[in-house]
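[retry 2/3] GntR family transcriptional regulator: previous attempt timed out, resubmitting with same input.
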Amino acid sequence: MTAAPPALAGPRSRDGDAHARIADGIRRGIIDGTRPPGSRILQEELAARYGASRVPVREAIRQLEYEGLLTVVPNAGAWVSTMTLAECEEIYRMRERLEPLLLSYSAPALSDDAIGALAALADRISDTGDDTGAFLDLDAAFHHASYAAAETTHLTDLVVRLWNVTAPYRRSYVASWSPEARRIAHEEHHLIVAALRDRDTEEAERVLGGHIRRTRRQLARTPEIFALSTDPR
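[retry 2/3] GntR family transcriptional regulator: success.
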């Protein structure tokens, strides 16, 4: 993706938007794999890195705990949250139902130009080869762009959160893909675009649901990626 998925807003602090900037930096690190599950989050390091006081640092940590990205242990500190296979499967089952619904809100309002941009993204995804980082960035850009025209109160933010909390495990999973698995994912992106171009929202929802379902089933076959980190709790 050329830009990160939509960030979730948190409360303002006395340091202006410092807490949002810090939260966004940590969130991006978790999503791009530089802060792996189980890694420690040090308030002193964050305050020094961002030139901020402890107040916005604590607010950023509380925001990311609320989003499910950090686990805070009283009197011990904060860590990047870990996830079991069962927890990840539950989230994917939620995505399997919620994202087609979100797409149903968005699809009728997508312009021809927006659908053309999705087609271009699908082509770029097909050209990523075995570059896991490029695939994940463009894949996220594709799906979030397909939802961009939806006018929702809660659903869009919820879907973004579900994407973010599974990001480290999705990265490990995609890195293990065979060429055939990549080919299928590329074809599904193009099928979603074709359905949107035909203004066949039901077909787009059906393909998207199957796209997510296939990932969930394949994740269940790679339980070893959930043993890469230690739960601080």
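[retry 2/3] GntR family transcriptional regulator: The chain has two domains: 18-80, 85-227.
[retry 2/3] clearing retry counter.
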